[in-house]
Amino acid sequence: MKHLLIKCIVASVVCLAMGGLSGVVTADAIPTWYTTIQKPSFNPPSWVFGPVWTTLYILMGIAFGVIWDSDSSNPMKRKAMGIFGIQLLLNALWSILFFGLQNPFAAFIEIIVLQIFILLTILYFYRIKAWTIWLLVPYSLWVGFASVLNYSIYILN
Length: 157
Fold this sequence. Notes:
This protein is an all-alpha fold. It is built from 5 helices and no strands. The protein is elongated, with a radius of gyration of 16 Å.
């Protein structure tokens, strides 16, 4: 149990750190470029994103920690962890494309790929510890919403 807790904490810290790095790119663009572009009526207020992403990164970290701590003889474990890593990198890349490069079209294409990797992560985690998917479903739903928001911003601008 102690090892599981440590792995969940370490994984959550890594996820939060990736989010923090993404936040650095985002923070510079919010008061400048982002305020000048057209956004749809359903665009959440800026203050919503911090608490939502913090919660999602912690849930992702816990899910990863559980998989990391699972039976090491499971042949899918390594693949599941690799796919998780790819989706985490794609998560960070989206901020670079959208906010850093100010390219909503490229970010939209990338967020579709991200969603595919989130769904693959869910599939592989399910095969190892089925209940962990409930920690990832909110993330997938939020990224689905973000995809619609991203596409709307692209169309409006």
